[in-house]
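Input (structure):
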C-alpha cells in the first residue's frame, strides 16, 4: 500500500481526541482514574494511534474487550495498565497474567483455573445489577469472595458494573436503581473484608451525566471520539449541567474518485438496475463498498462530500464500489478527494447521520470501518 497516496484512508485528529479526553478529566478530577475504551479498534479510530494519544493525555488505564487487543497494545511497547472488559477464556488466563493485564471475572471456573495455574493475577469482579449481560449474581458474591481469600496470588483489584439504560432514555429511573444496587453490593463487599477496592460503573453517558457514578475509575468510550452516546444523553446533559460540553469529532473517512462518466436518460446504475437516470447525468465511481464498512443500508438515503458539496449515492452499494451523482459538481475529476464521514468545506456528514440512513447508531458506523484501512494522525 502506498501510505502517502492511499485510495481509502481515515484521518484521526489527535487534538480532538485529546480535547475530548480532557473534558472527562475536567469532569472527574485527578482523584478518579480514566480508562478510555479502545475496544473495537478504538471504535474504528485505530487502536495503536488512539492508545498512544490517550496515554500521552494521561490515561491511567486503557480498556479493551479482549486479550487479543491487550496483546496488540503491549506489542507497541506500552507498559501501562490495561483492563480487559470482556470474557477472557480459561485457556488465555496464563497469557493475560503474562501480559500484565487486569481482567474482569464473573465465573467460579475462572477462579478455579487461576488457582490451578498458581499465577499472580489482578482481577476485577463484574457484578450483576440488572443489565443481565456479564456479571456475577448477588447471591454468589459472598462465596466468590471466600474463594478469593484462599487464593494468595489472586488479587481482587476492583468491582465493576455496567448500565443497561442510561444512554437510550432521558428518564433514568432504572439507572438509579442499578446504581443503588451497586452501592449495596459495595457495602457487602467492603464488609466482607475488602475495604480498598476500585469500584467502577460509568461509561461515557454516566460519566457525563452524574458525578455519583464516577467511583474510582470511569470506563469512557464513545464520547472520547467526539460522538454523543445518544441524542437523549445530549438532552439530559443540557438539563444536568450548566457548562456546555462541546465534543469534537475525531475521525474523517476519505476515498478518491476512480472514474467519472456521463450517462444518458434510461441508463441504469449498478446491480439490480436499482437506479435509472431520467436525464443526462455525470456520475463518479468510488473505490469503496460494504467490505470496507460502508454498508448497503446507507444507499437509499446516503450521500458523500466532494469539494464541499453533497453527491447522492446512486443505486446499490457494491462490495468494493459505490456510484454517486456529480452532475452538480462540474469541477470533480479523477482522484479528487471524497469525504464519506466528516467535513468537506462547509458541509459535514456525521456518524449519527450515516447511522440514521442505515437504521443504526454512530457506534456501529465507525466500528464498521474495516480495520486494515490506513489510519493517519493528522494533527
Ligand atoms: C463499551 C463499554 C463502555 C464504554 O461505553 P460508551 O458508551 O462507549 O462510553 C464501558 N464499559 C463497558 C463494560 C463497555 O463494554
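Output (sequence):
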Amino acid at each position: 500500500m502506498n501510505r502517502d497516496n492511499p485510495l481509502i484512508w481515515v484521518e484521526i485528529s489527535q487534538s480532538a481526541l485529546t480535547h475530548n479526553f480532557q473534558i472527562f478529566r475536567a469532569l472527574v478530577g485527578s482523584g478518579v482514574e480514566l480508562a478510555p475504551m479502545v475496544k473495537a479498534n478504538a471504535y474504528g479510530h485505530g487502536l495503536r494511534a488512539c492508545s498512544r494519544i490517550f496515554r500521552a493525555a494521561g490515561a491511567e488505564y486503557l480498556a479493551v474487550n479482549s486479550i487479543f487487543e491487550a496483546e496488540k497494545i503491549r506489542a507497541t511497547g506500552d507498559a501501562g495498565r490495561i483492563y480487559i472488559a470482556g470474557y477472557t477464556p480459561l485457556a488465555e488466563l496464563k497469557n493475560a497474567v503474562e501480559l500484565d493485564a487486569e481482567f474482569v471475572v464473573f465465573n467460579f471456573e475462572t477462579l478455579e483455573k487461576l488457582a490451578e495455574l498458581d499465577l499472580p493475577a489482578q482481577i476485577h469482579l463484574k457484578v450483576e445489577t440488572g443489565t443481565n449481560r456479564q456479571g456475577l449474581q448477588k447471591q454468589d458474591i459472598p462465596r466468590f469472595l471466600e474463594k478469593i481469600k484462599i487464593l494468595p496470588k489472586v488479587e481482587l483489584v476492583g468491582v465493576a458494573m455496567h448500565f443497561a439504560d442510561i444512554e437510550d432514555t432521558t428518564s433514568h429511573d432504572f439507572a438509579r436503581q442499578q446504581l443503588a444496587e451497586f452501592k449495596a453490593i459495595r457495602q457487602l463487599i467492603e464488609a466482607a473484608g475488602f475495604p480498598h477496592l476500585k469500584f467502577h460503573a460509568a461509561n461515557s453517558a454516566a460519566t457525563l451525566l452524574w458525578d455519583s457514578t464516577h467511583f474510582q475509575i470511569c470506563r469512557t468510550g464513545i464520547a472520547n471520539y467526539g460522538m454523543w452516546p445518544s441524542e437523549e444523553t445530549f438532552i439530559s446533559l443540557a438539563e444536568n449541567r450548566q457548562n456546555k460540553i462541546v465534543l469534537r469529532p475525531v475521525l474523517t473517512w476519505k476515498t478518491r474518485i476512480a472514474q467519472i462518466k456521463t450517462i444518458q436518460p434510461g441508463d441504469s446504475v449498478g446491480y439490480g438496475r436499482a437506479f435509472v437516470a431520467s436525464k443526462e447525468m455525470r456520475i463518479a465511481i468510488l473505490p469503496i463498498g460494504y467490505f470496507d464498512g460502508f454498508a448497503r443500508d446507507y444507499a437509499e438515503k446516503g450521500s458523500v462530500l466532494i469539494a464541499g458539496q453533497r453527491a447522492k449515492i446512486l443505486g446499490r452499494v457494491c462490495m468494493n464500489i459505490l456510484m454517486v451523482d456529480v452532475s452538480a459538481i462540474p469541477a470533480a475529476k479523477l482522484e479528487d478527494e471524497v469525504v464519506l464521514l466528516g467535513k468537506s468545506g462547509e458541509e459535514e456528514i456525521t456518524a449519527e447521520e450515516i447511522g440514521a440512513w442505515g437504521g443504526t447508531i454512530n457506534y456501529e458506523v465507525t466500528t464498521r470501518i474495516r480495520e486494515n484501512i490506513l489510519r493517519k494522525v493528522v494533527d
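Notes: Residues 37, 85, 162, 203-205, 219-222, 229 surround pyridoxal-5'-phosphate (CB under 6 Å). Residues 251-378 form a domain with the Lyase, Ornithine Decarboxylase; Chain A, domain 1 fold (CATH 2.40.37.10).
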